[in-house]
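Batch job 17 of 40 flagged for manual review because the log was empty.
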Amino acid sequence: MSSKTTKRSFLPGQITLEKQSGSAGGDGVDNFVGLPVIEAAPHTRRPDWLRVKLPYGPVYRKLVDLIDEHDLHTVCQSARCPNMGECWTAGTATFMILGNVCTRSCGFCAVQTGRPEPGLDYDEPRRVANAARIMGLKHAVITSVNRDERKDGGAPIFAETIRRIREEIPGCTVEVLIPDFRGIWNALQIVLDERPEILNHNVESVPRLYRRVRPQADYQRSLEVLRISKEQGLRTKSGIMVGLGETEEEVLELMDDFVRVGVDVMTIGQYLQPTRMHLAVEEFIHPEQFRRYKEIGEEKGIEHVESGPLVRSSYHAERHV
């Protein structure tokens, strides 16, 4: 029913560089710095319930061309989402704004980490709205990388993207999956003032695992994003991954926190290791446990819990409005 790995994950500060004598590459340089050899996490065979179809077909190809033509990014591609084939073949996609380089280094995420190009692309909202119109979207999902180098966190681009979509596609509902803006509430307010139909901010994992899973994030700060958003009358949504070493008790306690801050929609999905250099899967959670989480969460008072091995934050997003 489950398969576990015990491969150790390293955190910043746990690896030291040592000087070594001898020549490097035959150039005769002494006392070069020897980089540590970090063994990649082993490949773990996925159970049958995690098999997905590869993207294919003319609709999928048309979307790929559309995204490229408008110089846009999707979280579907950058995060290597397992549902990309299903969603893109159905003609839906989640746009990722503010570039494709993130200032954070979460252990689970395949999005590139580094220093983004300075400044913001103020034409990006127009391109996103135009692509959404061509795609015929009735519900648009917008997410982003973290832009922690900016005080506004890129919030003005979120706001302008919401406005542009509504101008370009009257009646289209908008869901935003936002970062925590480092707890700078003025930046958050820029997004909230545009009144998106769904305000989504993922806590991703249980608090005990944050140092390993989300080293630059803070669980209580994420809850505060959701609380403030709910207090202002927005429909709120958040999600977690399981299979990273959490216990059922921890997941249920997290659900209690969601009820306390007023989360309306919760998503629960299986963590899948995007590359061998990311955190290893500790356990493949059986579909029956996902059904149990859904039942318990809704009994506790969360209006809707989308729970399943392949569930991701934007999966069936149009159903959550």
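Reviewer: the log was empty due to a logging misconfiguration, but the result itself is present. The chain is about 30% helix and 15% strand. Unflagging and moving on to job 18.
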